[in-house]
Amino acid sequence: MAGGLAVVANEDxxxxxxxxxxxxxxxxxxxxxxxxxxxxxxxSGGVTSMEPFLxxxxxxxxxxxxxxxxxxxxxxxxxxxxxxxxxSLYVAGLFATxxxxxxxxxxxxxxxxxxxxxxxxxxxxxxxAAFNIYMLIFGRVLLGVxxxxxxxxxxxxxxxxxxxxxxxxxxxxxxxxxGIGVLIANxxxxxxxxxxxxxxxxxxxxxxxxxxxxLTLGALFLPETPNSxxxxxxxxxxxxxxxxxxxxxxxxxxxxDDLIVASETSKTIKHPFKNILQRKYRPQFVxxxxxxxxxxxxxxxxxxxxxxxLFRTIGLGESAALLSAVVTxxxxxxxTAMSMLxxxxxxxxxxxxxxxxxxxxxQMIVGGLMGAKLGDHGGVSxxxxxxxxxxxxxxVAGFGLSWGPLGWLIPSEIFPLEIRSAGQSITVAVNFxxxxxxxxxxxxxxxxxxxxxxxxxxxxxxxxxxxVYWFLPETKNLPIEKMDKVxxxxxxxxxxxxxxxxxxxKEEAT
Length: 510
Fold this sequence. Notes:
GO molecular function, one term: symporter activity
Membrane topology: Multi-pass membrane protein
Organism: Nicotiana tabacum
Low-confidence stretches: 1-11
Keywords: Membrane, Sugar transport, Symport, Transmembrane, Transmembrane helix, Transport
Strand order of the largest sheet: 1-2
Pfam families: Sugar_tr
Helix content: over 70%
C-alpha cells in the first residue's frame, strides 16, 4: 500500500488508516475544480480594467473613464452591462448546481466533476473568440455551468476521500486552488495588458481552457468515493476494496459499517430537498444557507472581482493596478496554505473568529482612510495608496485564513449522507446567488456609498463573527458519518434536534 501519515483508531471514533499518496494525488486532481473557479474570478476582474476590452464591448464605460472629467472617482465604472458580464456566470452556476445535485447523487461525484470541466472548456473557447457582447456573455454562461457542477461536487469529493483527522487540511486545498487560480489569472492579465494591438484580453479569457482541460482529462481517471459507491451500489465488497486502497490498510470494517448504515438511511430518502427541511436537519440547513451567505458579505469579491478597478479608483495606473491585484492574490494563497496546516489542530471556530476580527478592523481603517484622503476627483498620494494596499492585503490574509477555505469545508462535512448532495447544492446555490447580487450591485454601491462600502461589509463581518461564536459547534477530527453528535451536544441546537435523539438512535440500530 501507498505510504502516508498514520491515522489510528481512538476513543473519539477515528477510523484506522493512513493519508495515502493515492488519496493525495486524487484530491490534487479534483482540486483543479478550484483552479478553474479562481481563474475566472481573477481574469474577469482584470480584463474589465483593460482599456481595449472596455473600448470593444463597453464603450460607454471607456468613454466615461477616459473623457468625462466630471464623473466621480467612485462612479467611473458604474455600468449594469459591465457587471452583467461578471455576474452572469453566477446565475448560470446557481441553476446548474441543482442539476448537479441529481447527477452527483445518481451517477457519482466523478461524473459531475467531468461535466464541470467540459462545460468550462467550452465557455473558455467561446470567450476567447468573442466578437460581440452576446458571444461574450454566452461564454460566461457556459463557464457558470462548469463552475456550478465543479463547486457542487469537488468539496464533497475532498471531504469524503480524506481521513477525518486530515479532512480540514485536504478540503482547504479547494480554496487554496481557488487562490492559485486567481493568482495565475492576475499574472496573465498583468502580462497580456502589455500586448500591442489590444488583443491581450483574448489570451486572458482563452487561457481558462488550460485548467479546464486538465480537470476534464483528469476526471476520467479519478476513483469514485466510497461514500458515493455505497450510495449507488449494493456491492459492499467493491466498497471495501476501495476503502482499503485509499486508507492503506485492510482494517476498514468500522468505517465500512458506518457507511452501510448511512447508505441504508440514504436509500429511504426519495426527495432530499424536501427532507432537508425536516426538524432533525434544521442545524445543517441553517448552516447551508448562513455560511455561504456570510462568506459573500465579507466583501471578498469586491477585492477578487474588482481589485484592479478599486486600485484604479484610488489613482493607480492600469499596469500598477493589475500588479497590485497580483500581490493580494499571493497573500491569499499564502494564508490559505497556512490554514491548511493548522485547521485540524486549531479548529474551525477559532480561525473563523480570529479571521473575522482581522477583516473587520482592516475594513474600518480602509473605509476611514478613503473617506479622509480620496475625494470625488483626482487620486491619493503614492504613500497613501501603498498604505491602502497593505491594509487590503491584511484583510485578504484574514479571509484566506478563515472564511475563504472554511466556507467550503464546513458545509461539505456536516451533512449526513442521505441529504449530503442536496445540502451541498443549497450551499453552492446560496453562494452563487449572493456572489451574483454582490457582483451585480457593487459598482453601483461603490458609486453611491463611496468609501462607506467598506463600513457596509465590515458591519456584516461583525455579525457573522458573533454568529460563529454563538451557533457554530466545533467539527474538527470527527468522522464525517458521525457528525450528527455535534448538534445534539450544542447548547442551542440540542433544543431543536434533542427530541429526535431516540429516533436517530433507532435508525442507526436498524
